[in-house]
Write a structure and sequence with these properties.
Layout (H helix, E strand, L loop, with lengths): L2 H12 L15 H7 L2 H7 L14 H4 L17 E2 L12 E4 L25 H6 L3 H18 L3 E3 L22 H16 L4 E7 L12 E3 L2 H8 L1 H10 L3 E4 L3 E2 L2 E2 L4 H11 L5 E4 L7 H7 L9 H12 L5 H17 L14 H15 L1 E5 L10 E5 L1 H4 L19 H7 L3 E2 L1 H17 L21 H7 L5 E7 L10 H5 L3 H16 L3 E7 L15 E4 L7 H10 L12 E2 L40 E3 L8 H6 L4 E3 L10 E11 L2 E10 L8 E7 L11 E7 L8 E9 L5 E3 L4 E4 L2 E10 L2 E10 L3 E4 L18
Parallel strand pairs: 2-3, 3-4, 4-6, 5-7, 5-17, 6-9, 11-12, 11-13, 13-14, 14-15
Antiparallel strand pairs: 1-2, 7-8, 10-15, 16-18, 19-20, 20-23, 21-22, 21-26, 24-25, 25-28, 26-27
Helix pairs in contact: 3-12, 3-13, 6-7, 6-14, 7-9, 14-21, 16-21, 18-20
Bound molecules: beta-D-glucopyranose (BGC).
The site of beta-D-glucopyranose (BGC) has 8 residues, from loops.
């Protein structure tokens, strides 16, 4: 019997179906249902049924009795969470599961035989690197259909926080350092998932840019920077795709928990942007529940019973108006009405894993970024490959924490190269095989927790002479550097952002040895986030940034190495020369010491004064100068610029044109494949505003488009619609978005540092859009001297 069958059976057995017709949930009976609910039932509906004391519950948890009518969803898949349900009112549970790179479900489903897997798609950063919103829509469709197959109503994704700093441990779950690109990618993902009748949760709302002390950190930020940078992606996603839910983040902004802030959750999200769904908290534990309810935070996740008790108590004492509770109840009921569970959709437990693996592979092939190629790629006349680096033998599909996916398999580079018919060096295979086996044996008893993982194997330190002797054997050397990261920890600088000494030595030795033998070296980066490249990038002949490509990663990288696929990904963030080049590094809990250090730990909740900078509070003093907005405005050299990515072919841009429209402008450019193999090109449209008005970065991404696969000689004209509102910056003094009149430069870029052609458009009339003057910092934010 399926889940809805079970729910129905409970109803029949207990006689709850005799409840009056108007008190059973239908779209037309919302008022009647709310009226017939007791206060206890309403309070229970507002609190998730999932965790209890684990997530900060208190002892009163144990003593609070649920209303007798409430039922707990039997979480056979150990998914992210669910709401209580009330059979006598026809209210079914809402079943949720993480996450951005595929569904996160347990492999074993309680009470069932067999193992259940989900498709591990490329991580969000890799998906965004495709600059192909249609692809994200497609991935969303596949993810949504897996949710349908497993009976999941809401996927807790996409995650759209900004890459404010390269050390944020969850950057792989996020798209970019640019809010426009972020918003567009999220909107496409949401559209794709929701087209399957499955909800999404745009998370973590908002400004959740670090993991260190993530549950307590207070983000001190100006309203301009907040709106222009950290809310913008959410605004685009909400306006364009109307996610069923938004997840309020753990952190505070300017002194107020996001989960308790009516300005954020009601004034901005609902009144200004028109959000129609529910807000649910990130997996917080108990805070001031009444404040959350009144702020418009409808559902407390994962929920503990003390929160129910608090709502009931505070309504009774008059501290919390019951009308506020009713508003949240109504919105949750509206969500329930949309769910597959309510509509009687039966789980098949049989997603199309084969079809989705093909989609994952295709997405992976568009998400890789070719950073360097001195002609070695695609490989020609190569039969024997000498494969170096642990990670070549054990590819990393995705990050850890709630962004992790239990896939049936992960294709390594070794597997895929062998499958493609290459002969791998047997000595290296044995060596790395033994190294990994030893590591596995050492950690055989290690039980990974939700936020912990066994230490990585560490790169093998190969003797330099040995590497020279090996170089006589293969036709080419391929070397993979791996990195993983995940929720609850930020990354650190040495041995993480920077390569380890063993990795650097390996690249150096392999390059010296193979070059002296007249052979080439390719470095593959199977990483979750930005790593330092400037110090070593001159050595190898090619660098392929694979990111974490999901379960089909090895196949995708092999496709790129062989030329079966022509890389077309481009960076969605800047690769700086060194970590400290990022202005946000002045205000980020960077750590030299690794995960064990204080600065990189998850939470230090409850700390007392004196408050610690970057841990208890974080000053966003770099302002709007995040990522390329800083590097391009201040002429700073980078290792690889935002938007950068090579191809095996070349493209010419021609016929730039722009015409003003009633609401902005429409630009276009023609792209021609001028090389000798087929390829796709992602074109970025940057706008440089006229001077005189608000301070602006040198240029900002305002639109982008990608060609279809163009054959040599073939052309395509791409269009870039831009609205006047999209050109606007936020004027704090007036509390309004403003687009100044004047002449705007319209730049067609292959990257932010490579404008291929440009044109200009005149905006005749200034425009402004007043909004609420809310969420102000208590004191003005000081600007860093380097962004003045
Ligand atoms: C994460 C969320 C996730 C939730 C449920 C939280 O710790 O921050 O992104 O959706 O757990 O797993």
């Amino acid at each position: 019997m399926g889940r809805s069958g079970i729910v129905l059976a409970i109803c029949l057995l207990t006689g709850w179906t005799v409840a009056t017709a108007q008190s059973r949930l239908t779209a037309g009976a919302l008022d009647a249902v709310i009226k017939s609910m007791t206060l206890e039932e309403k309070a229970t509906l507002l609190v998730g049924s999932s965790q209890g004391v684990l997530f900060g519950g208190d002892p009163s948890e144990a003593v609070y009795d649920l209303p007798a009518t409430a039922r707990i969803y039997d979480n056979r898949m150990a998914v992210g969470g669910s709401t209580y349900f009330f059979p006598h009112l026809g209210i079914t549970p809402v079943v949720m599961a993480d996450g951005p790179a595929g569904l996160r479900l347990a492999v074993k489903h309680s009470g069932k035989e067999g193992e259940y897997y989900c498709t591990a798609f490329p991580v969000a950063t890799a998906l965004a690197s495709s600059w192909n919103a249609d692809l994200l829509r497609q991935i969303g469709g596949a993810m949504g259909s897996e949710a349908v197959a497993y009976g999941v109503d809401v996927i807790l994704a996409p995650a759209l926080n900004l890459h404010r700093n390269p050390l944020c441990g969850r950057n792989f779950e996020y798209y970019s350092e640019d809010p426009y690109l972020t918003g567009k990618m999220a909107a496409a993902m949401i559209g794709g998932i929701q087209a399957q009748g499955v909800g999404t949760s745009a998370k973590h709302f908002a400004a959740n840019s670090q993991e260190t002390n993530r549950k307590d950190d207070d983000v001190i930020i100006s309203t301009r920077v907040l709106r222009e940078m950290y809310l913008k992606g959410f605004e685009i996603a909400v306006r364009e795709s109307q996610p069923w839910t938004v997840m309020s983040s753990y952190n505070r902004i300017n002194g107020t928990w996001t989960q308790e802030d009516p300005a954020l959750l009601t004034t901005i999200l609902r009144d200004e942007w028109g959000f129609e769904g529910i807000v649910l908290t990130d997996w917080t534990g108990r805070r001031n529940t009444a404040a959350q309810v009144s702020a418009g935070n409808d559902l407390m996740m994962p929920g503990n019973k003390s929160q129910i008790a608090e709502i009931v108590r505070k309504v009774r004492s008059g501290e919390l108006p019951e009308a506020d509770v009713d508003v949240c109840v109504r919105r949750i009921l509206e969500l329930v009405l949309k769910t597959g569970t309510f509509r009687g959709r039966e789980a098949t437990d049989a997603p199309d894993l084969t079809g989705h693996a093909a989609i994952a592979r295709q997405a992976a092939s568009e998400g890789m970024v070719l950073l360097k190629n001195d002609g070695v790629l695609p490989l020609k006349d190569v039969r024997k490959i000498d494969l170096f680096g642990n990670t070549s033998y054990r590819f990393i599909a995705g990050g850890t924490g709630s962004g992790q996916v239990n896939a049936a398999y992960v294709v390594s580079l070794k597997d895929a190269l062998e499958e493609a018919g290459y002969q791998l060096n047997p000595y290296l295979e044995r060596l790395y095989g033994a190294h990994l086996a030893l590591h596995d044996a050492r950690y055989a008893d290690y039980v990974a927790g939700p936020f912990t993982q066994a230490p990585g194997a560490g790169e093998l330190e190969l003797d330099r002479d040995k590497v020279f002797s090996l170089s006589a054997q293969g036709d080419v050397a391929v070397l993979t550097i791996g990195r993983n990261a995940g929720e609850a920890r930020d990354r650190h600088i040495p041995d993480d952002f920077d390569l380890t000494a063993a990795e650097t030595a390996l690249i150096r030795n392999v390059c010296d040895a193979y070059h002296s033998a007249g052979k080439k070296v390719v470095v593959v980066l199977n990483v979750s986030g930005v790593v330092e490249t400037a110090s070593w990038k001159a050595w190898p002949d090619a660098i392929l940034l694979a990111w974490q490509l999901g379960q089909e990663g090895g196949h995708a990288v092999t496709d790129a190495l062989t030329g079966a696929v022509n890389p077309s990904g481009k960076l969605t963030m800047t690769f700086p020369l060194q970590y400290f080049d990022h202005p946000s590094s002045y205000n980020f809990p960077f750590s030299y010491e690794g995960p064990a250090s204080f600065g990189a730990t998850m939470s230090v909740t409850g700390r007392k004064e004196p408050l610690v900078k970057d841990v208890d509070y974080t000053l966003y003093e770099e302002g709007i100068y995040v990522g390329y907005r800083y590097f391009s405005s201040f002429g700073k050299e980078v290792s690889y610029p935002f938007g950068f990515g090579l191809s095996y072919t070349t493209f010419a841009y021609s016929r730039p044109s722009v015409k003003a429209t009633a609401d902005g402008f429409l630009a276009s450019v023609t792209v021609t494949n001028t090389g000798s193999v087929a390829g796709k090109e992602a074109v970025q449209l940057y706008v440089s505003a006229p001077s005189g008005g608000l301070e602006k970065p040198a240029c900002e991404l305002k639109s982008f488009a990608k060609t279809r696969l163009l054959q040599p000689g073939e052309s395509e004209t791409l269009s870039f619609p831009v609205t006047a509102y999209e050109l606007a910056s936020f004027n704090e003094a007036a509390s309004a978005w403003e687009t100044a009149a004047g002449t705007y430069r319209v730049l067609f870029g292959a990257s932010v540092a490579d404008f291929r052609c440009e044109t200009q458009v005149r905006i005749r009339q200034s425009r402004n859009w007043p909004v609420h003057d809310v969420m102000n910092p208590k004191q003005p934010i000081k600007e860093l001297s380097i962004v003045k």
